[in-house]
Design brief:
Low-confidence stretches: none
Oligomer: single chain
CATH class of the largest domain: Mainly Beta
Strand content: over 45%
Number of strands: 13
Number of helices: 2
Helix content: 10-25%
Shape: globular
CATH topology of the largest domain: Porin
Largest sheet: 12 strands, antiparallel, barrel
CATH superfamily of the largest domain: monomeric porin ompg
């Protein structure tokens, strides 16, 4: 049995008891609030999950002279900060089975600031068919994102193993006419440090291209489109193109599909 010698010891014991009661009450209240919160908010905040996208942005066909099928594919897998990218662009002639691979890149991308990814990886360019097989591999540095005023921007530099440097830039803007109908103007240009005769690419600025695409989204994942593109060739590239076609520019009309999942 506890005995207290002085009145001060009695007061100290009372304070200790009051403190323990208050402490136990706070703990019990906090547990009760946590249980109530779990009822109201049963789902915890999302972790850094991984997800992906496979987008065939352009799969277009033109019957004008060349009977060409052109494609532009973008795919990525990862999270909000790190992603693995696969990008491909090119065209295939349905008559001769010849084709050109303008881009085939495997890249690792990292979020560097809002709306922008810096990317690095390996890239391939080449031609095939009719004894014109040719290819080059190189290191790719890329910047991809959304510029001010909602311009989708894609800037790539390739350092080929044979010493050449290639660069290209694309700017695209989407104008929503209705909930399903969209107009997309796009401008692009490319540069090469040296002549690549096998690819009919000359040194310096190669071309300036502008296109206008009208897209109708039957579903968000499935949208037919019509596109008109105009390309003006420059420098030595103009000489290569003019030697083959007798022209220094070309205009194409494409009917195609945009598909993603």
């Amino acid at each position: 049995m506890l005995t207290f010698r002085t009145y001060g010891e009695v007061l100290a014991m009372r304070k200790l008891i009051y403190f323990l009661i208050t402490f136990l009450f706070i703990i019990e209240t906090s547990f009760a609030e946590e249980k109530e919160c779990k009822k109201l908010y049963p789902i915890k905040p999302m972790d850094n999950y991984t997800f992906g996208l496979f987008l065939i942005d352009r799969l277009g066909y033109t019957t004008e002279d060349k009977n060409n099928l052109m494609y532009e594919i973008t795919s990525w897998y990862g999270g909000d900060y790190n992603r693995l990218w696969l990008e491909a662009e090119g065209n295939h002639n349905l008559n001769s089975n010849e084709g050109e691979i303008e881009k085939l890149d495997i890249l690792f991308g990292k979020w560097i600031r809002p709306f922008w990814d810096g990317r690095v990886g390996l890239g391939y360019i080449g031609k095939y068919g009719n004894n014109k097989d040719f290819g080059r591999i190189g290191l790719v540095l890329s910047l991809k994102g959304l510029a001010p005023y909602m311009f989708e921007t894609d800037f790539d530099i390739k350092f080929l193993t044979t010493g050449e440097m290639l660069a290209d830039i694309e700017l695209e803007y989407s104008i929503l006419l209705t909930q399903r109908l969209t107009v997309q103007p796009k401008v692009s240009s490319s540069y090469s440090s040296e002549n690549l005769k096998e690819m009919e690419i000359g040194s310096g600025i190669n071309n300036f291209s502008i296109s206008l695409r009208l897209i109708y989204e039957i579903k968000r994942e499935f949208a037919p489109y019509m596109e008109v593109s105009y390309t003006k060739f420059l420098g030595n590239t103009k000489d290569f193109f003019k030697k083959e076609t007798g022209k220094d520019k070309e205009t194409n009309i494409y009917l195609g599909l945009r598909i993603w999942f």
